[in-house]
Amino acid sequence: MEFQPHSISYKSQGVGGNTNPPLFHNGEIFVTSGYDHPGLMFSLSDDGNEIELKWQNETLDNHHGGVVMVDGNIYGANWQHNAKGKWVSVNWESGRTNWETEFVNKGSIITADNMLYLYEEKRGNVALAQPSTDGLKIVSSFTMEEGAGPHWAHPAIYNGKLFIRHGNVLMIYNISE
Asked: Residue ranges of the domains in the chain?
């Protein structure tokens, strides 16, 4: 297979790091990059050569913590001028914000077994939450106290274990029970 680049169908008008990978589902792509730029949903043509803007959402402008989709809704944290951020849920199909709420500060998010794992970037708060269109439903939480510096590394889950790195420390939590 040979990679054949296509012409650019869309170019962002903003500046910033664009550190988040896009989410792809059923011929649509969601992109977000923080810095007060809206999250954008694009529809791809059947041949994949053209894209069309489907909707934009001003609330979910994720900086670098990533976004996930569970049951037709996007979850992540927004940017709010790099000082603070809130956690957000947006409907994949309509682009409507389901909710925006505080959980200490913005951070990274992953999903496994139909649950959300949040890792807040300033103080290291970690939360297990149920996906919901009615608000952030935290099941349990704790604070990652080992390590130093910002809590920017994304958590990972493998074989019933939650891996969280903070600076030069890697903590492993058993989440299989």
From this structure: 23-174
